[in-house]
Structures are given as C-alpha cells and as structure tokens.
Structure prediction request, 141 residues.
Amino acid sequence: MKTRHLVAFAVLAVIAAVFMAGCSILGTSIEARITSFVDGLNGDRTQVYTNLDTSIPAYAANQGQTSLWDAQFPSTDGTYSDIVTSPAPLDPSGVLVDITASISTLTKSYKFVLKNNGSIFDDYAITDILVLSGGTYTSIF
Prediction:
C-alpha cells in the first residue's frame, strides 16, 4: 500500500513541477511577447533580441547588440510603455502597438508581426517590427 502512495505522490510532484514552470512550458501569448520586448527596452537591451523568432536574420544580427534598439527606441527618452491596440487589419499575425516614452511627448505606432511557433500552446515570437512613418509602415530591420 505504501508503494502505491509513493508512486502517486511522485506523479503529483511531477505534475506540480510542470505547472509551476509556467510560461516557459505553456508558451508566450502575443501580449506577453510585446510586454517582454518593452521590458527589455527598459532593462538589459542586449537581451531584446530574444523576443525575435530565431529563424529570421534579425535574430542573429542583433544577438547581444543594442544599436538597433538604441536607434529606434532611444534610452534618452526615458522608460517605455506599450498599449496593444488591436490586431492589424487584414493581417491576423500582426498586432498594432503604440509605444510611449516617459520623457518624450511623442507616441510612436508600430506593427509587430508575430509567428506562432507553438504546437499545443500558443508561443508567439516577433518576425518583423514596422514603424508608422508618413502614413506607411516601414520595417526597422
């Protein structure tokens, strides 16, 4: 009888450990990916690239680098915050995001194009970032 209890306890412990691992196992939602990107802008900018899809050239090009992020999101503008406004029209993989800096009075509008790499759970990664300029979106990569 005790052996069955030990086996049952071991199974429950494994299940609990899986659930405690959280997002790393369950994937990353669109909103969580954008939040992680913005948190990287406000923190260690050398790690912002980890929010990109590993299969795109920009992932390797920006690995451990800050020059792209510094050019597009100057740290002199203060801390950044985001508002995910809506899915991009006619593009189910895109999401429109307004990013605001605390010191700058300018709000920039971006379109993040994301790819779902998950098989069971959604696991989104950024494949492109476009900035609204002169009425059209232009890729920052």
In short: Residues 50 and 59 are 7 Å apart (CA to CA). The chain has five helices and five strands.
